[in-house]
User: What shape does this take?
Amino acid sequence: MPDTNPQILLARRPQGAPVAEDFRLAEAPIPTPAEGEVLVRHRFLSLDPYQRGRMDDVKSYAPPVALGAPMECQAVGQVAASRDARFKEGDWVLGGYGWQHWSARKGDALIAVDPKEAPPSTALGVLGMPGLTAWVGLADIGQPKPGETLVISAASGAVGQVVGQLGRIAGARVVGIAGGAAKCGFLTGALGFEAAVDHKADLAAQLDAACPQGVDVYWENVGGPIQAAVFPRFNIHGRMVMCGMIAQYNSAPGSAAVGAPPGPNLGPVVRKRLRIQGLIVFDSWHRYPVFRAEMLAHIAAGKLTWKEDVVHGLAAAPAAFMGLLRGENFGKLVVALD
Amino acid sequence: MPDTNPQILLARRPQGAPVAEDFRLAEAPIPTPAEGEVLVRHRFLSLDPYQRGRMDDVKSYAPPVALGAPMECQAVGQVAASRDARFKEGDWVLGGYGWQHWSARKGDALIAVDPKEAPPSTALGVLGMPGLTAWVGLADIGQPKPGETLVISAASGAVGQVVGQLGRIAGARVVGIAGGAAKCGFLTGALGFEAAVDHKADLAAQLDAACPQGVDVYWENVGGPIQAAVFPRFNIHGRMVMCGMIAQYNSAPGSAAVGAPPGPNLGPVVRKRLRIQGLIVFDSWHRYPVFRAEMLAHIAAGKLTWKEDVVHGLAAAPAAFMGLLRGENFGKLVVALD
Assistant: This one.
């Protein structure tokens, strides 16, 4: 067992896009689990866009990361020492915390992961928070019906790829928006989407071609010009699932800042009876067991796949995270630790 | 029985705010009811903001009024001749049509009105389309809970006054926004609202004072600067019932025109898990009987009142309608015909 716990700390709060100097590599003692706690050796860290919000000192749905504290993330790992009878050494668990190699957590905060069911890293993606986000948002807000058109931005990302496949399973006509030919080919190939739209080319013309019957459900991960292009295409009773607006995470802290770019005129919300609704997956974590069982059944039936973008070593995390905010990842971004 | 049917026709499509020349007084023959039809002598015409949209030749949820056709409205009147066994001469009915004295309608399009239950004109207001709008929007979208803060724009208008009273009955803390001291006094007086905000004075300061706990439900009738002032005040899980945006009916046909003013940045929809949803009452007319029974019970219990703004004579309709679009009405606007 190593002597120290390598960590990446929040060194300062970013001004706009994060830069390398906003992070600091450090070493801390490996934590000692208290009674009821479990020491987890992290094997995979999850990098997700919401973590950008935690770097700002603004009121949000969760407190910001403190300066000098490890950057926030979920981690999958193995139990190294347990003072909770439900967990024993070597067990795989979801629920480690932070950009670091080790964390000690209450057993109540951990979820057992069975590596025979699926590779453990999927507990951070298709079978984890991004997957649950997709599943809850479609069940509660999007509700795609057979034959309806479902459009997804950041469609090859961690959440988008699950949204589209669940939409396809529900019988919807799925159109994914992504950046570049490789991602678009992945959407219509491996994921079985009906069409893909490359936002680096003429968005309006491609949307016209891909959505001849308009848009019934729009899954919003991005905002900005993509939102502006999709919004006028809603059909009557359209639903807009507001999962994120990554395009402005670097420029509009908390998304409520003075100077945040304006949104669409809401007149069509009345005329078309649209529903625009936000979700945060942390409200729905209690639905995880039902979600996981359904997802495993889809995987077993060969209906659902996933793509991970794996970087190796803790030191790679900051650059990978900065790239994530620029849309450079291809699939669910995880950091593998050895 | 008179010889002719006075009408007000759509003479031309307005450019911006309607002016007198957009309307034309005319006379037509009194229609002869066909088999299954009922001839209705209109006693009260309903003037409502949505009629402005019908004057534009744009795609909407209903076709526009044709040039040279009577302006659209619902009317309450008495049966003058019936070829439907369910209706007899002298019966009061809701479902007459158009800015005119007479119309012949299929019996299926009519709803019997019992003048012993409430004054017949209320079938155009508290017991009619505006009331049903309020009831459906609160039941399906707003869902105010005891102690929550419900804010309403155009709060003394036909819909707003019902929304606020139903919200008060549901136990919400009701804050109405209206223009001028008389309307504001009506809200906190006769209607029993907790607070009133005069949009002709400092909106932000008044909202701060009236909503110390933020806004849980916002009923949107207006748009524009009022929307911009309320939107940032939403609490987590806030609901925004999109009933109308009268502030832009004269300037943004169909509300989707290029040049329509932008709306709020939608970032807070994610962060606060807001729900923004539109409604059009015509989707819910089948719920009228349940609605009416509930409303009559509230009225009988002394919990619900209403205020009408009555103008007299068909010729007064255009000016009254133009005033409605400027917020000059005080209560549900109806035209009484003799």
